[in-house]
Amino acid sequence: MSKIALGVTGGIGAYKAVEGARGLQKAGHDVVVVMTRAATEFVGPLTFEAITRHRVITGQFEPGANADIEHIALASSIDLLLVAPATANIIGKFAGGIADDFLCSLYLATRAPVLLAPAMNSNMWAHDAVQGNLRTLRARGAAIVEPGEGFLACGWVGPGRLAEPPEIVAAAEAIVRPAQTLSGRHVLVSGGPTYEDIDPVRFVGNRSSGRMGYAVAAEAARRGASVTLVSGPTQIPAPEGVDLVRVRSAREMHEAVVSRVAGADVVVMAAAVADYAPIRAAGKIAKDGDELVLRMTRTPDILAELGSRRAAGEWPRTLLVGFAAETSDVVARAGDKRRRKQVDLIVANDVSGDDRGFDTEENAVTLIAADGEDELTLRPKADVARAILDRVERMLPRLAGTAQPAAAGGE
Ligand code: PMT
Prior knowledge:
alpha/beta, eight-stranded mixed β-sheet, five-stranded parallel β-sheet, 13 helices
């Protein structure tokens, strides 16, 4: 059973939220309804209270509501924040970070997944402001149940009608109860940067935030896999249910990954591993002279080692997934990397723009395997992770029993 906060905002579709609340409850979830003031003009809180058997929250400053700072308490106890109907107004407030009522504060305070079912007039739905706000929310990971087309309450015909309650309930179920398609599998993921020490106080690093690797680890865990995440230094929280192994340098990551491959069904190398490391000075390098020349040596190429050891017969059942961060001829270079490193799937990542790749919320990649390519346009890293694992799942059964490493090719 999951705990779902159902936000109801002021649109004619609010009446359908009653059926939605009932459907969620029938599916075994505990539903707490939060209504905006405008929503109460359409449906009475008592209706929801009778269905959910919980007090309906209608305001930030109700007596009792602040005794335990309720929006914070609720924010940390829910598994999903669902808003149906979501008006243009609430979508704008969420996107803009406004916190002038209970529902907006709850949105800002919770780390639970967010699902929005918008409903509004067709022109409002098509407006750049609304679509821009939805893009912002999607980029932060919110999922959207698209409105349907048809006869709207305002008399217009077009897109904007609240999706039907069974569709909304199914979308909520897919989030709180994802199919356990990787149950019984072990997935090893690397993420984040590596730091290579120059001397006791300085290091060389890169701009990887860890978001991409962490998103893959989180999605694999949601699908029921047992997940080990080998992470370079990052500032982001570890995904729930994941065994986190923290490392600092490429050498440490090499040791942590290679020693854990046995038994892994899938390895996904999303980490940005340094290719060269400085020869570390024993003491702090003094500042004398206008130039400092660093001597660097090659680090172990972890992915290439996994590919060649598998080709030699080790870990025959392990599916290998690499990333390729490129700034030009992205797909061609990534395809070469896939063959050279002898991996099954490579995620070609164009890192030349500011809106994708390193230290961004979104990514645009091409998945390259022996049987073809899939181009994924710019989207949240959580969605990219889903697409990678969908592809991995399609490849897994083929590998069971018979390893099919990509043919080695020279460069
Ligand atoms: O962490 P984020 O801010 O979310 O950014 C995500 C990302 C841009 C870091 C990620 O999407 C990505 O592209 N990761 C791979 C970065 C990289 O090192 O690419 P590469 O083309 O240099 O390496 C190719 C593959 O070999 C990668 O799978 C890499 O993990 C692996 N490698 C590289 C060097 C090395 N010494 N050992 C390796 O295993």
